[in-house]
Amino acid sequence: MELVIADDGSDDSSLEIAERYASAYPDRISVVTHPGKAHLGIGATGNLYRSRLRGTYVVGLPSDDVLYPDMLEREVDFLESRPTLGFVYGFAHRIDHSGRRTAGWTFGSDITQGGSAVERLVQGNKIPAMTVMFRRECLDQVGPEEAVTYSDWEFFTRAASHWEVGFLPRALAMHRVHGANTSLSVSREQNLVRALEVTSLLRERAAQIGGRLADPRVRAILELQLGYLRFASGDQGGAANSVAAAFQRDPSLKDDGRWLGDWVWARALDGLLPMADPSFAPWAEEHLQHFLEAQAAGAFHSEAAAAGAAERAVRFAREGRAPRAHAAALAAVARSPRRLADRRLPALLLETAGGGRPMKALLWARRQVRPKR
Q1: The domain containing residue 8 runs over which residues?
Q2: Predicted local confidence at residue 179, as pLDDT
């Protein structure tokens, strides 16, 4: 195993400490810096350390995160037995500045179910970067990271376009949460700008990148995502144009009302929508409905109604109006009981119910999805 420490213009004693370790273990540890010891950002620093690596498998560990002792062994074994995988990842736990586990859900989600990793990645990054192990051949094919803030998201998407993705359903690392995190400590508006940056870049380069990114459905999703992000930015005209472009990219969307309902649902809960009107789900139904065939339109309507209720629940919860948020979340379950599989909805029900009502609410909702004998 080799350890390459890339210093991105640190202004404390980090570089000096790293160089002492490199001097003590010259065969195992090396230190690299940007020209003039400049600070060039996450993407450039990732490119820097990867250019010096010699190993078969590669893990990038941010300076404030921690790997569990068995992560490397588990992921090497996983990749060794599955030669078609370009990279593998797993869940991560969140810890505070002192290393204590924080409350909340385990970080990350499985995007490999159903072979739709790229479709899910272009809708948002759910991969904890500190848990990812790449196969060297995959990195060589993908090339360097782009100069965008969320460069790992764009990089993972390009890799998944040409390689299969693996997932280990366990926590493999710990992600330290503090005031300087690139994605966790920023406002909705900043996240929106950064998501637009990545989505626009992938949309422009999809044909050039090729692989799964060039599939009509994936390119249609990129148009839909761009429309959603434009809506969230206040550009409804641009959003409508992007939605229309999605059906030009993939005409089969007109028969896939259930999938479109899933897409609208996911957008209602991803945290990028403003609190002010207009609401996205009703707008999306209005602008998508007339592209759909009659049967698909019926399926889409019920799912869009559930998404609209979930969107209202999120808004009410942000405003501190717990009873109304709880009622809206229950309405979402009533419209589409299968939405309980999205763990964010039970969490919302629990957060907005008082006293003994949380468990009662969940039991009621689960009865709605229990298979009939």
Answers
A1: 1-54
A2: 57
